[in-house]
Write a structure and sequence with these properties.
The protein has about 210 residues and is α+β, with helices and mostly antiparallel strands. It contains ten helices and five strands; from the N terminus they run αααααααβββαββαα. The protein has three domains: about 40 residues, Ribosomal Protein S4 Delta 41, Chain A, domain 1 (Orthogonal Bundle); about 60 residues, Ribosomal Protein S4 Delta 41, Chain A, domain 1, CATH 1.10.1050; about 90 residues, Structural Genomics Hypothetical 15.5 Kd Protein In mrcA-pckA Intergenic Region, Chain A (Roll), CATH 3.10.290. Strands 2-1-3-5-4 form a five-stranded antiparallel sheet, covered by helices on one side. Strand 1 and strand 2 form a beta hairpin. The longest helix is centred in the first third of the chain and has 15 residues. It is globular and about 55 Å long.
């Protein structure tokens, strides 16, 4: 549905930028209708339960990264399994690190797609190379030293026209070194919670999956 992504943002009460540039315009439904779908004029009764709060935080982050429930749960459970072997404050960084290192997210952070949903589609269509080899798996985990580039054959595609001009206005995170002329980027560091600034309370997400 046309407005399904907008309803997700309204439902969790946070702008998740699921529709790219439209989310920055005055037409964004979060600006025009800043209340959950179907609740106009309704009065809420009581405060939400702890479970409801944790569920909402989980939904915020899962949708922010454009992931299905099964895939998102797998990432969280993987980090939870390591919880006893690492500092408690590190698990949030570990989770965000896994999510940010996905190839589709890296393409989005490079500025080669206006949303993570669009980035996922473009990776699936085989438009990108990792260290010179075509990778069409959105969940592919990049690592420090990897070079991500646009496949030469994709340069002729209309969706990639005028990229150089567009990228001059784009500021990638510090852990991605962007080469505008070559239309490629190198992973030079690791994502941090402070720089990523996720829209959700990470500790609540771990509590939700620890039940």
């Amino acid at each position: 549905m046309k407005n399904s992504k907008c309803k997700i943002c309204r439902r969790v009460g946070a702008k998740l930028f699921l529709k790219g540039e439209r989310c920055l315009s005055p037409k964004c439904p979060m600006i025009k209708r800043p209340y959950p779908p179907g609740e106009k004029g309704k009065r809420r009764t009581g405060a939400p339960s702890e479970y409801a709060k944790e569920l909402r935080e989980k939904q915020k982050l899962r949708n922010w990264y454009n992931l299905g429930e099964k895939q998102f749960r797998k990432y969280v459970k993987e980090i939870l399994a390591k919880r006893g072997r690492t500092q408690a404050q590190d698990v949030g960084t570990m989770l965000i690190g896994k999510l940010e290192s996905r190839l589709d997210n890296v393409v989005f952070r490079m500025g080669l797609a206006s949303s993570r949903r669009e980035a996922r589609q473009r990776v699936s269509h085989g438009h990108f190379l990792v260290n010179g080899r075509k990778v069409n798996i959105p969940s592919f985990q990049t690592k420090k030293g990897d070079i991500i580039s646009l496949r030469p054959g994709s340069l002729k595609k209309p969706v990639f026209q005028n990229l150089t001009t567009t990228l001059k206005k784009h500021q990638p995170p510090s852990w991605i070194k962007l080469n505008i002329e070559k239309l490629q980027a190198e992973i030079v560091g690791s994502p941090t919670l402070d720089e990523v600034a996720p829209p959700a309370e990470i500790s609540a997400i771990f509590e939700f999956y620890s039940r």
